[in-house]
Design goal:
Number of domains of chain B: 1
Helix content of chain B: 10-25%
Radius of gyration of chain A: 72 Å
Radius of gyration of chain B: 20 Å
Largest sheet of chain A: 5 strands, antiparallel
Strand order of the largest sheet of chain A: 2-1-5-4-3
Shape of chain B: globular
Helix content of chain A: 55-70%
Oligomer: heterodimer
Strand content of chain B: over 45%
Distance between the termini of chain A: 102 Å
Number of helices of chain B: 5
Shape of chain A: rod-shaped
Structural class of chain B: alpha+beta
Distance between the termini of chain B: 62 Å
Number of strands of chain B: 9
Order of helices and strands of chain B: HEEHEEEEHEEHEH
């Protein structure tokens, strides 16, 4: 069998079959009701069969509706449209069918009622009465005649019954005459027909009547060859002369066939009319029942057909919905089967093509995204490893990215503030004072939307003054507007310092060279003048000469010292790093300053178990001498001057030395240039002491800072990396480093 | 489990209707039932009174043929392992049709078993004849064994299934059409005497 036909049969066949069988059954029932008496016996069976069949169809309908309800609750794709179309179809089919049902019912009722009317009923009743009257008269006449004959010939009849019954039959023109004794014994009979057949005796009840001397005359029926024959039975009881017995004379008069036929037709018509009249109500009920079943069957079948048809119709929609659901869940590998060759098939094919293209595009996007991610990671790695600090802001000045160098420069973990507005962050967080000045510097450039800009900015960090070179640039966005800002921060402190150092070294070298050379001839010339003229001059002139040449020689010596200092600053020796105890060195130096006659005092407060450091002892010795000397000079006018040297560790990475004096303090302005060469406010100072101190600290990868205010203590804070941290970057043994 | 009110009403109506029929006197009841032995035959003689309902009478008056079913069963009662059992020895079943006929309104009884037709002028006569079972032979006496317990039971009922189709539903649902005498049982007493 063709698969399409088989599918159609599977979907619609069973309901078609059941409906057809039930319809045939209903038609037969209808025919039976319309006097098809040959099938009358099957009516009850058909009725129950049809009721059961309709019950089955209703069950199927309820099951289908229940299934749809469950699908509706489960939100199965296509169920809503199935319900909607089913409802619409039900209304479209149900309303006209109901109207037809109503009118059919009305017509049936009216039609059946119109079968009967008073005139017909009266006519039939009158016809029946007429026939009955005619037969009654005939019966009465035959009774009278027979009675007369019996009265006349009763004695002879009892005496010679055989002869008399024959005669009597001729006289009465009867079909059959029979003489019975009251005890039901047949005495004699005469018949028009075969005499070998005995007459049919009266019933027992009639003999009872005979015994009571009652006559009997009635029209009776017996089965004939072609139809029932009607006859008049007359029975007259009589007695013989001696009253020795009671007899009954039965006379059968055949009613003429024509009359019988006419009477039969009237009787049949009347009987049928009466039967129908009686069955009017049940007939209407039965037809109503059949019509209702037809209506119900039609409606239910139509609904089931509709549901099946709509489900078939929505199957491609369900398929597509299933596909879209799979796609919405991210499954782009789904491929919907194409079963129909119609527009739905085309739609499904288009859907499959679309999903394939989406899948391809998605894969490309995914690939692009992955590439972007790789690029992003690559960029992040580059930014992270840059020696410059990088900070990016979006167009709303919210922090987007930062690298470790930026964190180090500002001593802030910027990643904690990603997504926060820069300006608002500063106003909210009081712990970020280092950023306030920075943002104040860059803010005008950001507001001006200058494409690229740069500025140099001196920044006071907790490790001292830093010089930052800040480069800014805008980031483009998709719509060619400003998408954000990138700020690159370079810590050029060391570079600037190195440049300064180089410059100052050059100056010192030149000064030493230019000044040192003429000093010796000047000194020799002065000594020669004194030698030559000391004997020539006398008195005040001799004394003046002596004072002048002494001054020249003394100043030349001072200048030689100064030149030597410059030379030392310019020609820094190589640093020889070795493991040493800072506490020990400080104690050795302090011992040299233990002078009971001195008006100042030196106190130590050294940490126990101070970590070892890598340092050049000679250079550190110079460092501490310079600092102590600086403090002593600064405390010239101080009452009870004192110096305190303290060592401690604030973390595992560095050892901190503090040199504190109770001198007059350093003005805030002076703190900016105090470590610069040739910067001094002392009349005799070379201005190189603290510059050399800073140079030595930097040679040891340390850091020096100053904490002082006017009229209070001055504290130099030096931070040396200790061995543990040095070990990671430096060789643990002696190391020779170029400064 | 809950029933809708309509279903409950219908159930109550049916129960009420049938209970009325059940508790009132049965429209067909046996006034006498006895067994007789005649000509070496076990026969049944019984008299049945018919009190037909208006519905049935009206149907007869309107020329609707009514079929009465007569069932006679001869059975033996015995016990097997203490449990009573009944063994049917003979079953007689026949239909008698009652209908009005002709312009003279005769009432005819037609026996479907022997095809005998009897005409009566009144319905009462017809019913009387219908309700008279006069020495109806059941079984040859030789079949009956002495020492056994034989019983005869008889029942006359209106066969609603043979009514005209339009009337079928009415007769099925209307208790007034439930004409049934129920089984009337009689023990065969004179077995030894007859034998």
């Amino acid at each position: 069998m063709n698969s399409g036909v088989w599918t159609f049969f599977k979907q619609y066949g069973w309901i078609t079959l059941i409906s057809s069988v039930l319809m045939i059954s209903l038609v037969i029932m209808s025919q039976i009701l319309q006097n098809a008496s040959s099938f009358a016996d099957t009516y009850s069976s058909l009725l129950f069969f049809t009721l059961a069949g309709i019950g089955v169809v209703l069950f199927v309908l309820f099951k289908t509706l229940w299934m749809l309800r469950r699908q509706y609750k489960r939100k199965t794709p296509g169920v809503k449209i199935t319900l909607r179309l089913t409802l619409a179809s039900t209304l479209m089919i149900g309303i006209p069918t109901a109207i037809i049902f109503y009118f059919s019912l009305t017509f049936i009722q009216q039609g059946i009622n119109q079968w009967f009317d008073v005139k017909t009923e009266t006519a039939l009743a009158n016809a029946s009465a007429l026939v009955r009257l005619s037969l009654d008269n005939s019966t009465r006449d035959r009774l009278k005649l027979t009675q007369a004959m019996v009265n006349e010939k009763g004695i002879l009849l009892a005496a010679s019954p055989v002869i008399e019954v024959n005669r009597l039959r001729s006289l009465l023109d009867a079909h059959e005459v029979a003489l019975y004794h009251s005890n039901q014994q047949l005495i004699a009979f005469s018949s028009e027909e075969d005499m070998t057949v005995l007459p049919e005796p009266p019933g027992g009840n009639l003999f009872q009547q005979i015994r009571q001397k009652k006559t009997y005359a009635a029209v009776e029926t017996r089965a004939g060859l072609t139809s029932d024959d009607q006859f008049i039975r007359v029975i007259i009881p009589f007695s013989d002369l001696g009253f020795s017995g009671t007899y009954a004379l039965q006379v059968i008069f055949l009613i003429p066939q024509t009359m019988t036929v006419l009477a039969e037709s009237v009787s049949a018509a009347s009987a049928q009319y009466k039967e129908l009249s009686y069955l009017k109500g049940p007939l209407i009920t039965s037809f109503t029942l059949i019509l209702s079943m037809v209506f119900l069957l039609t409606l239910v079948t139509a609904i089931l057909f509709t549901i099946q048809a709509v489900q078939n119709f929505t199957k491609p929609i369900q398929t597509l919905a299933r596909g879209t659901r799979a796609v919405s869940k991210g499954d782009y590998s789904v491929k919907m089967p194409i079963k129909e060759g119609d527009e739905f098939g085309d739609l499904t094919q288009s859907f499959n093509d679309m999903i394939q293209r989406i899948s391809q595009a998605r894969n490309q996007i995914k690939l692009g995204h992955q590439q972007t991610e790789v690029q992003k990671l690559y960029s992040q790695a580059i930014i992270k490893n840059l020696t410059s600090g990088v900070l990016t802001l979006d167009m709303n000045l919210q922090i987007r990215t930062s690298n470790d160098v930026a964190n180090q420069i500002f001593n802030i973990e910027f990643s904690n503030y990603i997504g926060q507005h820069f300006e608002r962050l500063l106003s909210q967080d009081d712990h970020l004072p280092q950023l306030v000045e920075f943002f104040a510097q860059i803010s005008p450039h950001l507001k001006q939307d200058t494409k690229s800009w740069s500025l140099q900015y001196e920044f006071a960090s907790q490790y001292g003054q830093k010089i930052l070179m800040i480069h800014g640039s805008t980031l483009p966005s998709m719509d060619q507007t400003i998408g954000g800002y990138v700020i690159v921060i370079d810590d050029i402190t060391e570079l600037v310092q190195a440049q300064l150092n180089a410059a100052w070294s050059d100056v010192a070298r030149r000064l030493a060279h230019e000044i040192k050379n003429p000093l010796t001839p000047i000194q020799l010339s002065a000594e020669r003048l004194k030698f030559k003229l000391d004997g020539v001059l006398e008195g005040q002139n001799r004394a003046l000469l002596g004072r002048m040449t002494h001054t020249i020689i003394e100043q030349v010596a001072t200048m030689k010292n100064l030149v030597q200092a410059f030379s030392d600053y310019a020609n820094t020796p190589e640093v020889l790093l070795e493991e040493m105890s800072l506490n020990q060195l400080i104690m050795d130096i302090a011992a040299m300053y233990q002078d009971p006659t001195a008006k100042w005092s030196l106190a130590l407060e050294l940490m126990d178990h101070c970590p070892m450091i890598l340092a050049d002892k000679a250079r550190l010795r110079q460092l501490f001498h310079n600092l102590i000397k600086n403090s002593i000079e600064a405390m010239e006018n101080t009452i009870l001057p004192s110096i305190q040297i303290t060592t401690y560790c604030d973390d595992q990475e560095s050892v901190i030395v503090q040199v504190i004096d109770n001198g007059p303090g350093i003005a805030e302005e002076a703190q900016k240039w105090i470590f610069e060469p040739y910067a001094t406010d002392k009349p005799k100072g070379s201005g190189l002491g603290l510059a050399i101190v800073r140079k030595i600290v930097e040679e040891h990868h340390g850091h020096i800072s100053l904490n002082s205010t006017p009229d209070s203590d001055t504290c130099f804070i030096i931070r040396f990396p200790c061995m543990a941290s040095n070990a990671s970057t430096q060789t643990p043994t002696k190391t020779k480093m170029d400064t | 489990m809950k029933f809708p009110p309509l279903v409950l009403s219908v159930l109550f109506w049916l129960l009420f209707s049938y209970s009325n029929v059940a508790f009132s006197k049965s429209p067909i009841h046996f006034s006498s039932v006895k067994e007789v032995f005649q000509n070496q035959q076990l026969a049944l003689t019984a008299t049945v009174d018919f009190t037909l309902s208006e519905e049935v009478l009206s149907a007869i008056y309107h020329d609707i043929p009514i079929l009465f079913k007569t069932e006679i069963i001869l059975f033996e009662k015995s016990k097997f392992l203490g449990f009573p059992i009944e063994t049917t020895q003979k079953k007689i079943e026949y239909y008698t049709e009652l209908y009005a006929y002709g312009v003279n309104r005769y009432y005819v009884l037609y026996n479907h078993r022997n095809h005998k037709r009897q005409t009566f002028q009144t319905l009462e006569d017809a019913l009387q004849t219908l309700g008279t079972l006069q020495a109806l032979p059941v079984v040859n006496q030789s079949v009956l064994l002495s020492g056994k317990h034989y019983f005869l039971k008889v029942r006359i009922s209106l066969d609603r299934w043979k009514l005209p189709p339009p009337l079928f539903m009415n007769a099925l649902l209307n208790p007034l059409w439930q004409l049934d005498s129920g089984w009337q049982e009689v023990k065969i007493q004179r077995l030894n005497k007859g034998a």
